[in-house]
Structures are given as structure tokens and as C-alpha cells.
């Protein structure tokens, strides 16, 4: 079989979907399918609540130890506590580490 160049060209165009002379293309139909899906996600989160702690120097059993008209004990029952005179009306048992804090700026006793 002997084919001319123009026939080969037309056959090649036809293989790529080009219309051949006198060729009526057939209608094409497309079918589509719509797919719908639902995804439900569940999440659980656990959060630890921090526990707060504080350090407290316990108060002596008798914090007041002197002052004007005081009739109770004038000594402190806890170790490392001293009777500190805040003013002539009130003295209190305080931890010895706090004496410097309360002494600064306090006038000297006469």
C-alpha cells in the first residue's frame, strides 16, 4: 500500500482528534459522580493543674510578749524567736532573722 504524504498527515491529525475532511465528530457524553463524606474528629485534652506550696514560719503560741498594761508572758516559747518591742504599747515574738528588718529606722530606746 502506498500512501501520499498528505494522507499520512490527515491520518496523523485524526489520531490527535483533529477533524478529517467530511468527518462529523460524534457527540461525547461525560458522567460525573459526586462523592460526599463527613469526617468527625473527637479530641480529649488532659491538663495538669499545678499545686502551689508556700513556706510559712509558724507563729509562736504567744506572739505578744510585752507592752503597756501587758500581763502575759514576756518570753518567747519558740526556739529562735525573740521578744521585740515595736513601741511602748506593744512587743511581739518575732523570728531572730526579722530583727534587723524591724530595727532599721527605729529610734533608739532611751
Automatic annotation (TrEMBL):
Residues 57-94 form the CBM1 domain. GO terms for molecular function: cellulose binding. It comes from the Eukaryota. PROSITE patterns: CBM1_2 (PS51164). One of its GO terms (biological process) is carbohydrate metabolic process. GO terms for cellular component: extracellular region. Residues 1-19 form the signal peptide. Pfam families: CBM_1 (PF00734). Keywords: Signal. Transmembrane segments: none annotated. InterPro entries: CBD (IPR000254), CBD_sf (IPR035971). The keyword Signal applies. This is CBM1 domain-containing protein. It comes from Ephemerocybe angulata.
